[in-house]
Amino acid sequence: MVWLCRGLVKCMDKLDELFLIAGTLAMGFALTLQIVMRYIFNSPLVWSEEFARYIYIWICFIGVGYGVRKNLHIKMEAFMNIFHHNVQNYVEIATTIAIMVLVASIIPSGIRYTVAVSRIPSPAMEIPMSWVSAAVPLGLIIGEVRLLQKLLKLLSVGGP
Predict the structure, then answer these.
(1) What are the CB-based long-range contacts (under 8 Å, 24+) for 10-14?
(2) pLDDT per position in the chain (160 positions), as tens?
(3) Which pTM value belongs to this model?
(4) Alpha-carbon gap, residue 11 to 114, rounded angstroms
């Protein structure tokens, strides 16, 4: 059972990175293509800026889980350094739980909003806006899973 969980975590890790890399490349390609079409062929694309904006939204929200996994989110180091090392672990656990509660409280609103905008097309590409707004609940669910992983690591090892 443990090997299955580790396999899923490794798969999630690779999917995070693959999506972030592919999204960044797709966004860069669309914007480069827009520049070429606008300034060289004098025929700007209608969809490229909207596409890049929506990919950026997805990158940001998928990046939440990646940031938690890599411990990249902003911390108050000066505040943490006030405490003794043993107390820092408890503060880190309490902070992680508080963030988990906050993230969990946002997910239902993100799902409701995604459902609410499902029949609204985007202006240029005419895709359902739910495809864009689904980044919020999905990214936060991934972030919640990563926070749970972090919490379990903090509780089992006694430190980050």
Answers:
(1) 12/65, 12/142, 12/145, 13/69
(2) 556 677 787 888 899 999 999 999 999 999 999 999 999 999 999 999 999 999 999 999 999 999 999 988 887 777 888 888 888 889 999 999 999 999 999 999 999 999 999 999 999 999 999 999 999 999 999 999 999 999 999 998 654 4
(3) 0.88
(4) 26
116 within 8 A of 104, measured Cβ to Cβ:
no
User: Cβ distance 95 to 88 under 8 Å?
Assistant: no
Quote the domain boundaries for residue 150: 2-157
Contact in structure between 145 and 99 (CB atoms under 8 Å) = no
Domain total for the chain? 1
- In terms of Cα–Cα distance, which of 62, 22, 24 is closest to 143? 62
- Give the Cα separation of 14 and 67 in Å (integer): 14
Dihedral in degrees, nearest 10, Cα atoms 31, 115, 140, 16: -50
Q: What is d(CA 62, CA 45) in angstroms, rounded to the nearest whole number?
A: 27
